[in-house]
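Lab notes, practical 5.
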Amino acid sequence: MKTKILLVDDEEDILDLLEYNLEKEGYETIRAMNGNEAIDVAQKELPDLILMDVMMPDLDGIEACRRIRSIQGLEKIFIVFLTARSEEYSEVAGFDAGGDDYISKPIKPRILISRIKAILRRELDSKDPNTLFVGDLEIIKDEYIVRKGERTLSLPRKEFELLYFLASHAGKVFSREKLLENVWGDVYVVDRTVDVHVRKLREKLGNEYIQTIKGVGYKFSNNL
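Output from the prediction step:
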């Protein structure tokens, strides 16, 4: 069965461009031209991923995303925002609403396809959650082992657990508070603890794996 992608934009030429490039890659596409229509189509068609513009009439993409996330059966659909807006606050609002990624216009088809493949790959990776393969990294959860190319890296427990958590949700942005909650649990530590652990991971792995999203938090790159 083909992967189904819902395209949401109020400009026909953008929809035509997206449809052409995605169907050329073997994806099935369906369309909506505003946020309200996107919600209706998503409930009927149950797409695997929604590619949605932010600025649209009737209901914008951010509010549509927030409503989709609240509907039973749609809460786990991948949602990627498309927008010409570059202001930091709109990116923050998109992630806060539950977006999985954020791609700026003008659309570059090769980059778009690469990002979509990386996001959809998370669904496959989740079937074997013990071992992750990301770029040139192999992360083995049960053994607390990280291999980078030919090297085996020794990481302290919390560094490893932070790396595994971020890598298993590649492309998704987490605030420091969410990382503390998911990695450290009930142990009281300050936000700065996350920054220190990220810095140490970058020293050992390189800077390309964990990205800082200004004003939001951190994410593991999905373009490796």
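Observations recorded by the TA: Residues 131-220 form a domain with the Arc Repressor Mutant, subunit A fold (CATH 1.10.10.10). DSSP finds eight helices and eleven strands in the chain.
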